[in-house]
Amino acid sequence: MNKTALITGATSGIGKATAYEFAKHHIHLILCGRRQDRLNSIKKELEPLTQIYTLCFDVRDKDETFTAIESLPEDFKHIDILINNAGNAHGLDPIQSGNIDDWDAMIDINVKGLLYVSKAIIPQMTERKSGHIINIGSSAGKEVYPKGNVYCGTKHAVLAITEGMRIDLNPYGIKVGAVSPGLVETEFSKVRFKGDKIADDVYKGFDALQAEDIAEIIYFVISRPKHVNIADLLVFPTAQASSTILKKEF
Ligand code: NDP
Ligand code: 8X3
């Protein structure tokens, strides 16, 4: 029987590439994001390969999140795989001049949003005693870099919450793990720098990871045998050795 996966942040970057990768393997998909137009066009492209349902909601909004997930039709109610991917950095500023709205956005989306979506889905997994949750962390969840303060804090939180989930869900046989990438060329920097052209320079001068690289890794993680749980996976582009060491060629 085909499995069903719910992917947050499926309108762009890693989440979108994961939808395409999973569709190749005929996994039924619930694709989430705030941009319904993008969800519609991805649905149209992937429908020849698998069954698709879209949910348009903001993970910051607790009620919207629960209402959206409760509204799933019968065919999509049974969720085997949850990919908690929605998230972004907002701003890159020293702590003393950081923007409070940016801090709120990162904490509300990357941490609280991930918790709301998980809370809406975990009960069906514990009831069935099966399921797989992958939280998208970051190298920023393993080390802090200058001006990364709150974004790094949210990704450290994601990795701590991942461990906590794995511990608490262990009696139920539910797999929980994190995939933690370094620099991936997506809309991430456009969002971080609010459309400023500085975003164009982030991925110049080296071969950044592409969203498809991470999507293939996520598929590898979810396709391991029942007794194998990849708990944590850190992946850098070859040019990157750490959050602050990057070999650029100009
Ligand atoms: P993108 O900006 O390309 O994608 C972000 C996705 O998150 C979009 O689909 C967006 O959808 C969704 N999203 C953002 N805010 C909300 C919200 N409030 N409610 C619902 N959905 C939301 O970035 P990436 O693909 O790079 O990022 C995906 C994940 O990967 C994030 O968690 C990020 O922290 C992590 N990551 C990224 C790295 C990188 O270098 N790019 C490296 C390490 C980790 P929409 O706007 O339609 O709502
Ligand atoms: C995204 C990678 O280094 O821009 O999580 O924080 S980084």
Summed up:
By secondary structure, the chain is of the alpha/beta class.
Characterization of the model:
The chain is of the alpha/beta class and 250 residues long. It has a single domain (4-235), classed as NAD(P)-binding Rossmann-like Domain (Rossmann fold, 3-Layer(aba) Sandwich). It is built from 7 helices and 9 strands; from the N terminus they run E-H-E-H-E-H-E-H-E-H-E-E-H-E-H-E. Helix 1 (13-24) links the parallel strand 1 and strand 2. The longest helix has 29 residues, at 100-128. The model has no long low-confidence stretch (mean pLDDT 98). Bound molecules: NADPH dihydro-nicotinamide-adenine-dinucleotide phosphate and 2-hydroxyethylsulfonic acid.
SSE topology sketch:
Layout: E1 4-7, H1 13-24, E2 28-33, H2 36-46, E3 52-56, H3 62-70, E4 81-84, H4 100-128, E5 132-136, H5 149-169, E6 175-181, E7 184-185, H6 188-192, E8 209-210, H7 211-222, E9 232-235
Parallel strand pairs: 1-2, 1-4, 2-3, 4-5, 5-6, 6-9, 7-8
Helix pairs in contact: 1-7, 3-4, 4-5
